[in-house]
Amino acid sequence: MKRIYIALILIIISAVVCILEFRFVTKTSEMYIKRIERIEREYNSDKYKALKLCNELSKDWEISASPMDTFLYHDYVDDISKNTGKLEILIKEEDTSAFETTCEEIKKQLESLKKSEIPSLENII
Description:
By secondary structure, this protein is mainly alpha-helical. The protein has 5 helices and no strands. The chain has helices spanning 2-45, 47-71, 74-93, 96-116, 121-124. Helix 1 runs antiparallel to helix 2 and helix 1 (2-45) runs antiparallel to helix 4. It is elongated and about 65 Å long. It starts with a helix and ends with a helix.
């Protein structure tokens, strides 16, 4: 009977960790999508402010990426890190089309990251 209780406790702990990780990834992805959209709006009106926001985004992403690397496929997180770093360069070079493309790519990567955590048959198998 003691083993059954231990097994149930371990199952409950595993379920709680999975739920917390899912919520963390979902909320983090949504937050960064909103921040990217804000940077896009600022780019059209004030490039200096967009650059400042982009710098903050890169620093904050590096902090958020660390716990994500624990639970997620590292390449997804690394690709987003590369693209957030690229945004600053594109703003400085005033390469509008590449900037817009990179923003869209980051948003798609974040959406993909979020969808990859949804417990579906496709993601499990």
